[in-house]
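new request in #modeling-help
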Amino acid sequence: MDIKRAVLRMEGDTFNVEIPSGNVRIGKGALAPMELMLVAVGGCTAMDVQYILRKMRYDFQMEVVVEGSRRKEHPKIYERITITYNVEGDVPQRAVERAVGLSLTRYCSATAMISATTDIEYVIVLNGQEVKRGQKKPLEG
Amino acid sequence: MDIKRAVLRMEGDTFNVEIPSGNVRIGKGALAPMELMLVAVGGCTAMDVQYILRKMRYDFQMEVVVEGSRRKEHPKIYERITITYNVEGDVPQRAVERAVGLSLTRYCSATAMISATTDIEYVIVLNGQEVKRGQKKPLEG
């Protein structure tokens, strides 16, 4: 069983957090947990796409932007999240679409975990031009 | 509308991430996105409980431990997450239970977002003794 652990120690107004991959500080004047949720979502799928396109031997640069709009009522969940993949390089459109598709339908755990409560939209921008826009389907099974 | 944004810029094997509250680095040798998901979940509810108990004027220390076990198949979502609230101080059990209850049923957005796909268990330990254990109900509506 793959078990991950985070230990959050209260220190005044903040919490010092230990995770296997490092340390972060959250709370007043430090990192905001609900913003880290966007980092988890964006990081998970960005790393998938990076891995898949590299495996296909493409040379590229990428910037992934994740925007979430929160509901006004408690709990203030993200009602909608838009993930924009900006890819620059000599990469065919179908390769980027395939990489993003594999991430959002099969590999990315973070988007899968929130897809039942959050609408997830994705946009692919290749060399400055929007080439695709779609919706992630909620996780089944 | 409350919109939050994360910008992830690929830099070699890692991504430099900008969020309104600061910067983090994710990827190979840096922070792991799925571990940050646990930080988001733990941080969200830990800050709620901190806020509520302070509002009740209690003097306490707290450590929150979040453990998640991931599924073996893709997408490797957390099937189960256990949140342990370790509270030390002169705080009545009912106050801690009330603070945790308010967070998990009403305020905490991160746990609400994943509760449809992940079983969330909570444990309250007060001055070294386990006083309560329960299950968060999935978000309704």
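bot summary: The CA atoms of residues 105 and 136 of chain B lie 7 Å apart.
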